[in-house]
Amino acid sequence: MRISDIITEQILKLLDESEESKAEIQRNEFANILGCVPSQINYVLTSRFTPEQGYIVESRRGGGGYIRITRVQMNRSSALMHIINSIGDLLDQATARVVIDNCLHNSLISSEAAKLMSSAISIVVMRQVPINLRDTIRAAVIKQMLLAQI
Amino acid sequence: MRISDIITEQILKLLDESEESKAEIQRNEFANILGCVPSQINYVLTSRFTPEQGYIVESRRGGGGYIRITRVQMNRSSALMHIINSIGDLLDQATARVVIDNCLHNSLISSEAAKLMSSAISIVVMRQVPINLRDTIRAAVIKQMLLAQI
DNA sequence: TATCTATTGGTCAGTTAAAGTCAAAGTCAG
DNA sequence: CTGACTTTGACTTTAACTGACCAATAGATA
Hints:
Radius of gyration of chain A: 22 Å
Largest sheet of chain A: 3 strands, antiparallel
CATH class of the largest domain in chain A: Mainly Alpha
Order of helices and strands of chain A: HEHHEEHHHHH
Shape of chain A: elongated
Number of strands of chain A: 3
Oligomer: homodimer
Helix content of chain A: 55-70%
CATH architecture of the largest domain in chain A: Orthogonal Bundle
CATH topology of the largest domain in chain A: Non-ribosomal Peptide Synthetase Peptidyl Carrier Protein, Chain A
Number of helices of chain A: 8
C-alpha cells in the first residue's frame, strides 16, 4: 500500500473521530509515526485535501507549530436545505421544473438525479393523482428527494 | 498458443475467482509473470475487454499504479425492462422496497438512484396520498423512475 | 525593546515507479 | 499475396516520493 494512502487514511480517521471535523497534527511528529519524510505530508495535503475536495488546511510554523485540516461543510448541503425550505406545501409542475433545473445548473444535484426527479413527478405518474392533490404530492416528492441528496 | 490468448485467459480467471467480478493487476508485474512486454497487456485490454464486450477498464499511473478490469452486467436494460413489466398497476410498500433492493444488489441501479427512489415513495410523501391510491402511485413512480435509468 | 536561536512548517526541483501511446515489424488464414 | 490481427519497444505522461534549502514563529537573551 502506498504511503500516501496511509497518510490519507490516518487524516480521515482523525477527522472522523473529531466532533468538529478538525484534525490537528504536527508535521514532523506525524511523519515520524507514519515512517515517511515530512514533505510527504504536504504532498498528500495538496493532492487530496484541497478546497475543491472540501477541505481547508491551515498551519503555523515555529515552536508549537501545527497543521490543521478542516472538513468543510460544502455549502451544497446548506444550499439544498435552503431550497427545500423555500418550497412550501404546494408545488406546481412548472415551478418544479425550474427548481430541478436550477439545482442541476448549480451542480447541487447530478444529471442522473435530475432525470430521476423529473420522472418521479412526470405527467405519466401525476395522471394517477387527483388534480386537487397534485401540487401537494409534487412538493412532498421533490422535497423528500432533495433531502435524500444532502 | 498466442500470448494474447494466455493473457485473456488469465484475466478471465481472475474475474471468475473474484466475488465482485473485478480483477486488479499491475501491468509490469503481470507482463513479467506471463512473459510478455507490458504494452501487450494494453493491446489485449483494448481488443478484448471493451465496454461493448461488457467490461470496464480503469487504471492509475505512477507509483503503486494498477489496472482494474470489471465485468459488467451486460443486459442491464433488458433486466430493468423485465422488472418494469413485472410490476403491475399496484405496488405495496414492502414489495417496492424489495424491488429497489434487488435492482441495487444486482447493480442495475446506483446506490444514489436507490436512495432517490426510496425517498420518492417514502412514508413522508405517501402520507399525502389517499390510502386507496397509494399502491397505484407507488407503482407509477417506481416504474417511471426505473424507465429513466434505461 | 531589539535581536538571536531553536523549532517548527513550506517549497521546489529532481528521482523513481508506474501506466499509456503509437508506429513499425511479424504472423497467419484465406 | 493480402489484409487483419499480434507483438514489440522506444517514447510519453502521470503519480508518488525525497531531500536540500527557505521562511516563519515563539521564546530566550541582551
